[in-house]
Amino acid sequence: MGNRKWCVHSSSTILSDSLENVVTNAGGESDDICTIGDAFFYVTQFEYKFTCVGYGEETEECSQNNIVCAGFDSGYKVFGSEAEMASLLITASGQADHMYPDCPNGQ
After folding, report:
1. pTM
2. CA-closest candidate to residue 44, choices 56, 61, 53, 31
């Protein structure tokens, strides 16, 4: 997998096998995606590009104002399921800058 060679930052993590499979099965490309903290990053040989898509446990509350989270639980914004996160990642990866179009921080 491509991401295994680029996710070398000390705080970056490659996608779990299950999340990688969900992204791939949904028609996305998972090879160049890593997580750092609570967000996904598109990774090239030279840089980590912020996707603005939040990463965390499915029902974990997503209180950050600088990322987009995929799910809702009891009226609260949560990170969402792997399928929901994959949907946002696919949208982000379709952009020239690999950032989700409705990113709240407008980077």
Report:
1. 0.82
2. 31
Strand, helix or coil for residue 26: coil
Strands 48-54 and 39-43: antiparallel
pLDDT tens per residue across span 68-102: 999 999 888 999 998 899 899 889 988 999 999 98
Distance CA 10, CA 90 (A): 25
**26 in Cβ contact with 83 (< 8 Å):** yes
DSSP characters over 56-103: S-TTSB---SSSB--EEETTEEE---HHHHHHHHHHHHTSTT-S-TT-
